């Protein structure tokens, strides 16, 4: 009898473990096909294991648990046009701007609101006037009022409790990793610490100049746009010392206000993004070199060396079986190609890795000059190790199982889909042994 009871207990234990494994799959093996989207709807990654479901037709928000693919809740917060959506300290933070009238076509400045929602239920926790800044440090939310005279505040993400208040954080577009830089109308620049709200006087820029980029050494700022320039075109760019805003040089390089920006700081050089050619200048505006049909994607640092990641196009040159454009890593100082990774495409850059994907070809003129029938059957995900001593080559992870045309990657999750072939969006957790 005793041995029989022992066998029963072992059987019950194994059954319990089996149920646990089936209802709580290992995150490293998670691959979930998400619910079908209606016309105008889209998914976005908002945190580890969570995605939002939104539509271009209304302001409703749905939150999905990516481990199960189940929508947890869906509601319209009723605060206007959504501007920002993110998870902070386990709370969903939503910022929105109100409309001018009932047509919902024109936004009204000064109507921003930020609300906190329970991530699992959608229940409102708190709300505050103002919009959440795109940059933040820790779980302190910097909220400012765009178009009104109210002070900016830093609030606790969970409780909404005000931690600091600052009158200086008004017009802002540059973040140095800890402080948001704010430019007054007279050109005075202050750096507001986003953890304490304290402001540091940096210096003064020429009146009406606007910061477009910066580094630990330099700041790029543009003068007012040309009258009647339509798409907003700036007549040049000033280079300033980031410590005291002393002007170092002025480059007569016309650039537009689109994003990504035309001009990037590349160490002691300035890179002009491309379209059609990438050009690299020194701080005196002298052209160092140009790369024809090269489009800059981003700039990274590795082993005291700065590298440009971009796509080298070969439009007009069609050779069967040869890629028409390839991704390259280029030495910033010389333009020398240090690695050509072929048709792998940049997905995301982290501190120690470049994440890339080998997407399925959509047709003979996209990646490889080849018939549609020989296009790649499935998408492959991989990375380039940026740690010292590692070779600049792609390490291939397991294929993703289907032919996706696009993938987002954040919080350790891939969100992939293929609207061309009608493949439903799928969420894949990138673990050591993901399936």
Automatic annotation (TrEMBL):
The keyword Signal applies. SUPFAM superfamilies: Quinoprotein alcohol dehydrogenase-like. InterPro entries: Quinoprotein_ADH-like_sf, WD40/YVTN_repeat-like_dom_sf. The keyword Transmembrane helix does not apply. Keywords: Signal. Residues 1-28 form the signal peptide. Transmembrane segments: none annotated. This is Outer membrane protein assembly factor BamB. It comes from Dactylosporangium darangshiense.
């Amino acid at each position: 009898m005793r041995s029989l009871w022992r066998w029963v207990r072992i059987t019950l234990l194994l059954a319990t473990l089996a149920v646990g494994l089936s209802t709580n799959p290992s995150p490293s093996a998670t691959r979930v096909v998400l619910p079908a989207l209606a016309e105008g709807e889209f998914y976005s990654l908002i945190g580890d294991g969570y995605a939002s479901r939104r539509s271009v037709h209304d302001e409703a928000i749905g939150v999905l648990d990516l481990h199960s693919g189940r929508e947890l809740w869906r509601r319209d917060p009723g605060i206007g046009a959504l501007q920002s959506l993110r998870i902070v300290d386990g709370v969903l933070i939503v910022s929105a701007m109100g409309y001018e009238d009932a047509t919902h076509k024109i936004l009204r400045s000064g109507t921003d609101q930020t609300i906190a929602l329970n991530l699992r239920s959608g229940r409102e926790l708190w709300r505050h006037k103002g919009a959440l800044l795109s940059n933040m440090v820790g779980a302190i939310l910097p909220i400012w009022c765009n178009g009104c005279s109210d002070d900016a505040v830093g609030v606790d993400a969970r409780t909404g409790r005000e931690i600091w208040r600052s009158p200086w954080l008004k017009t802002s577009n540059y973040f140095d990793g800890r402080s948001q830089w704010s430019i007054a109308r007279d050109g005075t620049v202050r750096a507001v610490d986003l953890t304490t709200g304290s402001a540091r006087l940096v210096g003064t820029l020429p009146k009406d100049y606007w910061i477009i980029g910066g580094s630990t050494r330099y700041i790029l700022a543009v003068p007012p746009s040309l009258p009647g320039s339509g798409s907003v075109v700036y007549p040049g760019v000033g280079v300033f010392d980031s410590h005291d805003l002393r002007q170092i040089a002025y480059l007569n390089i016309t650039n537009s206000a689109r994003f990504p920006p035309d001009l990037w700081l590349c160490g002691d050089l300035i890179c002009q993004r491309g379209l059609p050619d990438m050009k690299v200048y020194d701080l005196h505006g002298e052209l160092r070199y140009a790369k024809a049909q090269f489009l800059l994607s981003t700039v990274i640092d590795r082993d005291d060396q700065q590298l440009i990641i971009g796509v080298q196009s070969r439009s007009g040159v069609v050779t069967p079986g040869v890629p028409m454009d390839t991704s390259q890593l280029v030495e910033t100082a010389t333009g020398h190609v240090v690695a050509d990774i072929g048709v792998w495409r940049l997905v995301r850059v982290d501190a120690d890795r470049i994440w890339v994907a080998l997407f399925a070809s959509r047709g003979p003129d996209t990646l490889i000059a080849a018939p549609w029938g020989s296009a790649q059957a499935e998408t492959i995900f991989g990375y380039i190790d940026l740690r010292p001593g590692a070779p600049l080559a792609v390490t291939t992870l397991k294929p993703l199982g289907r032919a996706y045309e696009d993938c987002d990657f954040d919080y350790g999750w891939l969100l992939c889909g293929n609207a061309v072939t009608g493949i439903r969006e799928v969420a894949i957790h990138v673990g050591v042994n993901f399936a």
